[in-house]
From TrEMBL:
<keyword id="KW-0378">Hydrolase</keyword>
<dbReference type="InterPro" id="IPR000757">
    <property type="entry name" value="Beta-glucanase-like"/>
</dbReference>
<dbReference type="Pfam" id="PF00722">
    <property type="entry name" value="Glyco_hydro_16"/>
</dbReference>
<protein>
    <submittedName>
        <fullName>Hydrolase</fullName>
    </submittedName>
</protein>
<feature type="signal peptide">
    <location>
        <begin position="1"/>
        <end position="24"/>
    </location>
</feature>
<feature type="domain" description="GH16">
    <location>
        <begin position="31"/>
        <end position="287"/>
    </location>
</feature>
<dbReference type="InterPro" id="IPR050546">
    <property type="entry name" value="Glycosyl_Hydrlase_16"/>
</dbReference>
<keyword id="KW-0732">Signal</keyword>
<dbReference type="GO" id="GO:0005975">
    <property type="term" value="P:carbohydrate metabolic process"/>
</dbReference>
<dbReference type="GO" id="GO:0004553">
    <property type="term" value="F:hydrolase activity, hydrolyzing O-glycosyl compounds"/>
</dbReference>
<dbReference type="InterPro" id="IPR013320">
    <property type="entry name" value="ConA-like_dom_sf"/>
</dbReference>
<comment type="similarity">
    <text>Belongs to the glycosyl hydrolase 16 family.</text>
</comment>
Amino acid sequence: MSRRKNARRATVASTAVAASVALAAAVLTAPHWTGGTTAGTDADLSAAPGDLVWSDEFDGAAGSAPNPAHWNHETGDHGWGNNELQNYTDNRANSALDGNGNLVITARQETNGTYTSARLTTQNKIEHAYGHIEARIKIPRGQGIWPAFWMLGSDFPDTPWPHSGEIDIMENVGHEPHMVHGTVHGPGYSGANGIGASYTHPQGWSFADTFHTFAIDWSPGSITWSVDGHPYNTITTNDVGTNPWVYDQPFFMILNVAVGGQWPGYPDHTTQFPQQMTIDYVRVYEN
Ligand SMILES: [Ca+2]
């Protein structure tokens, strides 16, 4: 297991104007990436999860909406603080169950050249502190495509980002098809100074080729990231130094596919649309 701190860009966390401004400033001052890779050679598996306390298995009729008791749509085309291109919609063309037990988020290039996609959150519906939080996902692919499974503190936006806390369970940028990233952003360590690590596919294959499970094991003062049961990074209160540890509170979950942005760059002639992120389930277990 390798452990490192990567400087990297912020994930957008903003629906509030004030938070957008703050986040945009953080992002714009953080235009470099100095991260490295973590080989997927860990032999030990995550601790066995405890009782399942919540899940969405995404069972339902093809074309139906994700369960509104669990999921909100966040919509808009304002760039989300990262100069992203997509307009997030609540149209079934951008998010729907597939009838085979999956939620599919589809990023499309529309006939007028613009991009649409979807961003779903569990805010004010499903919020948890601690446990084993896992999703089984087949990510999309391509330059400028940016899928993510992540969380924000439930007090956002009343508590502005990054003081609200952000836990990125899985992010991928299309120009790194063999790599995923796990990161926390908090006060004093956000944007370029977010703390995290990356995990490289053990065979060097694209994560978009098949389903993978992306998880955190989260307990007071500690978060461990894993892919397919292989832990690859642990961050504890020691890692944030004198900065606040803001992860001892409930968080809500987010699933989205962004198109373009400072970190992933932008689609080019190699990028094919539509692109789909297929989510088999999201599960929360007690630790
Ligand atoms: Ca399923």
